[in-house]
Amino acid sequence: MSDAAALAALLRAARRAVIFTGAGMSTESGIPDFRSPGGIWTKMMPVQFQDYVSDPEARRVSWQRRFEMEETWNATKPNDGHRIVAELARRGIVSHVITQNIDNLHQASGVASDHVIELHGNTTYARCIGCGQAYPLDWVKRQFDEEGAAPNCTVCDEPVKTATISFGQMMPEDEMQRATALSQACDLFIAIGSSLVVWPAAGFPMMAKRSGARLVIVNREPTEQDDIADLVIRQDIGETLGPFVGN
């Protein structure tokens, strides 16, 4: 049986399938690689959360970097893999998508927002680190250009940052709880485009497997969890499942 046929059979048999996605899901959409060798974070150090909170200059640098990448983010579109995942969700085969990505492409491809659990947040809008008030990026850009500094919240005067989880910042409690519950309750867990080395997110495939789910890993490179997987696929999800969803 081919990998595609084996995965299609697992999907047909599943009643509570969950998909987990990492950076490899979005590289075909032009999203730059942040963590891998040669990625952005090997060329410029990320701003630590505590520095962002305490240092106005760190906040200025962080927002300057974000705005310098605005053209790149705006040009990104869902790729075939995103569209296939969205189709699986539309058909009710997959209940939720747990993602390490911050690009909003699962929602843009058609997955309902409340069915996407964003472990590392979302870069397409901003949020106050104090009260949680959300802000559109164009508002932040206007304030930044006018004042030459990162803006504070209009509600509580605490710093505003992209709605992403920075290095040194606590993982979002609600999202972690939802991802835990889904991983423990699913009967099929498909990890796509993740090296499965960034913790605690990398623990969810193991959690699903230990709770009795079948585990599928779809990734171009080997991962440390390949040995516990029921099926390992070295192709992109678009190549693998395109015929299954009629893409």
Structural notes for this entry:
By secondary structure, the chain is an alpha/beta fold. It has two domains: 1-30 and 78-119 and 173-247, TPP-binding domain (Rossmann fold); 32-75 and 121-164, SIR2/SIRT2 'Small Domain', CATH 3.30.1600.10. Helices cover 39% and strands 17% of the residues. It contains eleven helices and nine strands. It has helices at 3-13, 40-43, 49-54, 56-68, 70-75, 80-90, 105-109, 137-147, 173-185, 203-210, 237-245; strands at 17-21, 94-99, 116-118, 121-128, 134-136, 160-164, 188-192, 214-218, 231-233. A six-stranded parallel β-sheet has the order 3-2-1-7-8-9, with helices on both faces. A three-stranded antiparallel β-sheet has the order 5-4-6. It is elongated and about 60 Å long. The two termini are 21 Å apart. Mean pLDDT is 91; it is low at 38-43.
Helical element count?
11
Q: Strand order across the biggest sheet? A: 3-2-1-7-8-9
CATH architecture classification of the largest domain:
3-Layer(aba) Sandwich
Oligomer: single chain
CATH superfamily of the largest domain: TPP-binding domain
Structural class: alpha/beta
Q: How many structural domains does the protein architecture include? A: 2
Estimate the strand proportion: 15-25%
